[in-house]
Design a protein that fits this description.
Elements lengths: L2 H30 L2 H6 L21 H17 L2 H24 L12 H11 L1 H15 L15 H25 L2 H7 L2 H15 L10 H25 L2 H8 L12 H23 L7 H17 L2 H24 L1
């Protein structure tokens, strides 16, 4: 069996297992504990003459409005102080992972399935970060994308594309997420659910204003700047939480329940538990995905150690950003050698 074949089979087994586990722990436990039923109870049919703060006319299409109501109710439960700090930490830490999917979509010779990150990121909004990105990294690893440079493919993301992605991330993630957390308005929360579409639209509009044909040089400095800034922000946030809370509070904030919570638990505890499992599987799959950045057993071993200890000390989002930076730097060196 060739190494490439072994790598593909390993990716299939690891990430398909993570997908199944994430569906069970994120969605299955929430359903078994009665959390979803309690959220649905806040969304009665308007035909019954009942109103709630979240059963609003978001689109005018009944089944979409009904679905949005449950999602909005869940997020507004998460705005409680018991949950909001972890929610903010989760959203900030996930930014480099989401951005990497958009960056990869502009890398030359990428597989067709990775060319449209909006599909995965929008699915994430409906099916969870953990389940969706387990599938994303399975496709990424099995497609050979991580081995593009060794296979002799061009890997440079040009400046126009890198800048357009960052503009899209700023408008779709930073601005919309800021409005989500600060305003805590049901209509803003519903709009935030399509932030991946907003990112794509903003990226497209930026490319209209600054077309790729006019800025064909390497986007390496732009991408590196983003990953460095992400590492600094996320690691600082993570370290401040580690040093500012006692151990019991840290466990409560970061560790989900292995068993479904009792139905008598507060909605806030249910919401926190769902978000915790979503983070566990989303970041686990993303950090495991970085193992396919490696070229040999030594690099795999180093990444495993870095992912484990770095996640504890600096946070998984910071670890991912640093690893993505390392990979981007190596690709840049390899591209430079090709041109010499």
């Amino acid at each position: 069996m060739t190494f490439a074949r072994f790598s593909q089979l390993s990716a299939l087994f690891i990430f398909s297992s993570l997908t199944a586990l994430s569906v069970n722990f994120i969605l299955g436990h929430s359903n078994a504990s009665g959390f979803f039923a309690r959220l649905s109870a806040q969304c009665p049919s308007p035909s019954l003459g009942e109103t709630t703060p979240y059963r609003l006319f978001y689109t005018g299409i009944p089944f979409i409005d009904q679905s949005l109501c449950g999602i909005v109710a869940m997020f507004h439960t998460s705005f409680d102080p018991e949950v909001s700090q972890f929610l903010a930490y989760f959203l900030i830490s996930g930014a480099p992972v989401i951005a990497s999917a958009y960056f990869e979509s502009y890398r030359p010779n990428k597989p067709f399935l990775l060319a449209y990150p909006v599909v995965f990121v929008q699915a994430m909004q409906l099916l969870s970060f953990g389940a969706t990105f387990s599938i994303y990294w399975m496709i990424y690893a099995m497609s050979g994308t991580a081995q593009a440079a060794p296979l002799g493919r061009k890997t440079t993301i040009i400046k126009a594309h890198a800048q357009a992605v960052l503009f899209g991330i700023f408008i779709g993630m930073v601005v919309l997420t800021g409005c989500l957390m600060v305003l805590q308005d049901p209509y803003i929360t519903a709009t935030w659910q399509i932030f991946p579409v907003v990112v794509s639209i903003a990226t497209f509009l930026h490319l209209l204003a600054r077309p790729a044909s006019r800025y064909p040089e390497s986007g390496y400095p732009v991408i590196c700047g983003f990953y460095i800034a992400s590492f600094i922000v996320i690691s600082s946030l993570h370290f401040s939480i580690l040093t500012g809370k006692p151990v019991d509070e840290l466990k409560s904030m970061f560790l989900p329940s292995i068993q479904p919570l009792p139905s008598s638990a507060s909605l806030e505890k249910h919401a926190l538990n769902l978000l915790q499992w979503d983070a566990v599987f989303g970041f686990t799959s993303s950090l495991l995905g970085t193992l396919w950045f490696s070229k040999n057993a030594k690099e795999i071993s180093g990444l495993v150690v870095w992912n484990i200890f770095g996640s504890v000390l600096l946070g998984p989002g910071a670890v991912f950003a640093a690893t993505a930076l390392w990979r981007e730097s190596r690709l840049q060196r390899e591209e430079s050698k090709k041109s010499d």
